[in-house]
């Protein structure tokens, strides 16, 4: 992999693309740490300290993870890439539902351009919405889960020089504009850089937290630091290995009469990945598990309601067996759910049959679909177990080591490591394949 | 450029509208200078003019537009008694600058190209690519006097040209040739075993007539050179008979816009019962293939739409031009299957020896430029695929043709009635009518209906293309009704009042030529080409398209559900949503074609690199003693042994022959392997992999292995071969006629992206209200 990077840097075209991507990442990070106008930087830092040293307060974990910590800092790019992702997902969904949009998509470049345009408008719309919501939350102190007293450390102080409504409006406009910028960066990376813009920016956000958390652990306990680093290497290696594991089902096409050499079925096959579902089941499961926490937080801190207390103690608390088991089961369920929806054996079998393809030794149509289904069910089990184990790793650690707050932020568990490795692999693969082609052209010149 | 036009250009660029064009102003500024120079040149004798032309050709700066245009104009004036208009000189300048020029029909593209060709001649050989053989010959002979006054030689090639004639034609300064002939000559050159057998020389400039048709529509067509036939174990005739007994929608299903067909479970059982075999048994792959091919021939290829039978031969119809495609065959046994279906003698199949797409062939030229009536709509594609820019030349006289909005009908039947009524009404006044239909069968049917109505018409379709030019030229005569397939007669002018224009004023009084399209084509450009037959050089004219909601275009590419509008008693529909849907269907069709082109190019790009690398190695083997050196090094014993028996020269010759044989056969196998790989690569999407990347990942090592394999086989053969004397010849693969085209899966991702699949699945789940299997 390192040699791939080295030779990528020797290819001017590719080098420029990589440098461009790095530049975008740098700009993105600058914006993510740049405080918005009207926000008290000092008070925000104090609140963050309070939150981090607090007990098990998982405020907006997923969102904050995707924004690289920018959200809680109320920076210019506080909203990060999330509104853009949400808008893209909504548009994708609408395309399936609304015939006119579907037709537009089929029209190719011109239609696609229109859909892109809608996505951009929607992103800005969502940006305004979310920015307003977060600004309101910040004012009321809810952004930090009520842990940070707003009369003591007001994050958006009313200085009296400028009317407050003007400050708040400026803040919303700034954050929305920031969202627009992030979206633009993402598109630029996709167009002129390496990798998919959205993925690269998410990768950046997650990776950006690592040094910070590393330092925290280091300051806490040197031995733990080395254990964590060692563990991280093992986990990453394990993930890289399993992400690339696949079962290949050979397929043969009977369409050409002449000039066909008998193939051992090596080049034409259906690759079934062990982790066919990617990171989605984990995101679904953690989003679902976030709901009880949200619900109980409405009940307030000092409730005496037994059910709520029980939920708080067993489901919300991340080191309790109930939470861990529930999380694990949900991931297993969503893995099967996702795979069954995205990989429809009947559809694949029909497609193969349509173009004259078949699995050697298996008749087309229903028998093929059944065969694919059988293999898929078998390969999904280890995939689901793997996803579950990686995801609950940090929770287990908290349980075993005993709630050391440094480990709570263990950055190599669940979503983070899956996304980091996934995006990393994808990007390296893209560089590699471009490199392959370039080197090749190099032969001729 | 004025401020306003600059702003408009900027705005278009910002909005990414197709149609950013290059600026003509600097070229317009040269026109007075050309006129001045022309005045000087007109004083010269013919010989002095030739001398002036020679002087230009010998100059280091052949891109002197003023001199080139002035010489061209003067030569045309003397040779053809025709002084090129300013717009033609503008066009020539655009060509000389290396762009694609859009000029309307009848603006004199042939002469424009000739002036540019003469200008390019100093930079090496110039090929003018014409649409067909007839035009190659006609244009070359027509322009010959002009070229002779400029001291240039001209040649032309057509299908029946002998190798000697070809060599001579390509040796001329300027060669007129169709793209398939030029391409096939390159393919044949690439497998010669003696350099003297080659016909092409270096590739210099190419000027392409009807550039959109060749650079875009035909670009993806692979030109294929096929060799010896493999014995066919199963008689395709027997299987064709079994397949012809199957019923559509019962025994087999046609899907994917009529691109593919497959047996249903019932049909499969029926075929297996009749053949008494299990088609999916491991040893029955050949029978299965034969059945698939027979089914394809039976269900997807329709006589008189996709092909015609002429002189006991199957001849393909070009889908974009509606005329017989020269030298084209279906690949991989499909041709034989069609022949079996029509019960005519098989012309034999063949292994693919060499192949190149039209696009890859054209990129061999150092400089590409071209002209067409419809370049602007494909401006983006020309830029994407060839880095070409488009310039629009205003017509010499303004276009006054009236283009009516489409007339839309609910059913095809109602539409056909309306078409006939319109023709009858127009014909009653004596006004010439040109009708464009979609297929040969449709044109004949329409002609029959018209005959019943007492309207005499001339039918122009793939069946009589040799008379085409003559018929088209007369389409503007008083009282003429001409029924044609879509693109016939590109390159031939329709003059009002007939080719001699004797009734010109009378026809003009009636409103000029009336063009009717019986359905919208798959591309707006082709519609525009048909419209462009009327309104030549400021002539009056009108055009009108009839559309029915049952048209293939609408059914395949229209939105789901299709808006139906409200029809009146005749079935006519006036509805904005319907109009949008029709336009949208055409845009979708264009996109599908573009995607096929783009994908073909993406996958062929790498293959073309392979082809060039292989060609380089083969050239080395052919012209140097590389093969001898290889064998002397790798098989020294055998080499020395032979060197004692035979002369050095003979050993080298034998070494070369063996090496070339293996270079060719290994290459042929590589091509087959790559087609096989390409066929199933879309399945990789299911593992979240990019098919193109995966293709590269497999193809590149395969090619690396190929070059080593050639050497190994050569060495092995050399060591084992019984060589009985200096006259030894290998059992050479006999060459058969070239063949072409096979459609792949439209997109390399038929399943949609993972997200799309997920949402589609979720929507299906909620709509059906049922649970999903597996959870």
From TrEMBL, chain A:
Role summary: The central subunit of the protein translocation channel SecYEG. Consists of two halves formed by TMs 1-5 and 6-10. These two domains form a lateral gate at the front which open onto the bilayer between TMs 2 and 7, and are clamped together by SecE at the back. The channel is closed by both a pore ring composed of hydrophobic SecY resides and a short helix (helix 2A) on the extracellular side of the membrane which forms a plug. The plug probably moves laterally to allow the channel to open. The ring and the pore may move independently.
InterPro entries noted in UniProt: SecY, SecY/SEC61-alpha, SecY_CS, SecY_dom_sf
Chief location: membrane
Keywords: Cell membrane, Membrane, Protein transport, Translocation, Transmembrane, Transmembrane helix, Transport
Entry membrane topology: Multi-pass membrane protein
Biological processes annotated in GO: intracellular protein transmembrane transport; protein targeting; protein transport by the Sec complex
Similarity remark: Belongs to the SecY/SEC61-alpha family.
The protein's name in its UniProt record: Protein translocase subunit SecY
Transmembrane segments: 70-97, 118-137, 162-186, 193-211, 223-242, 263-284, 324-344, 384-404, 410-428
Cell compartment(s), UniProt: Cell membrane; Membrane
Source organism: Dactylosporangium siamense
Subunit-structure text: Component of the Sec protein translocase complex. Heterotrimer consisting of SecY, SecE and SecG subunits. The heterotrimers can form oligomers, although 1 heterotrimer is thought to be able to translocate proteins. Interacts with the ribosome. Interacts with SecDF, and other proteins may be involved. Interacts with SecA.
PANTHER family reported for this sequence: SECY/SEC61-ALPHA FAMILY MEMBER
Record-linked NCBIfam families: 3a0501s007
GO CC, alphabetical: plasma membrane
UniProtKB/TrEMBL annotation, chain B:
Domain Helicase ATP-binding span(s) in chain numbering: 90-248
Keywords: ATP-binding, Cell membrane, Cytoplasm, Membrane, Nucleotide-binding, Protein transport, Translocase, Translocation, Transport
Topology versus the membrane: Peripheral membrane protein
SUPFAM superfamilies, sorted: Helical scaffold and wing domains of SecA (SSF81886), P-loop containing nucleoside triphosphate hydrolases (SSF52540), Pre-protein crosslinking domain of SecA (SSF81767)
GO annotation, cellular component aspect: cell envelope Sec protein transport complex; cytosol; plasma membrane
Location of the Helicase C-terminal domain: 418-577
Compartments in which it is found: Cell membrane; Cytoplasm; Membrane
Top-level lineage group: Bacteria
Reactions this protein catalyses: ATP + H2O + cellular proteinSide 1 = ADP + phosphate + cellular proteinSide 2
Its job: Part of the Sec protein translocase complex. Interacts with the SecYEG preprotein conducting channel. Has a central role in coupling the hydrolysis of ATP to the transfer of proteins into and across the cell membrane, serving as an ATP-driven molecular motor driving the stepwise translocation of polypeptide chains across the membrane.
Protein name: Protein translocase subunit SecA
Source organism: Dactylosporangium siamense
Gene that encodes it: secA_2
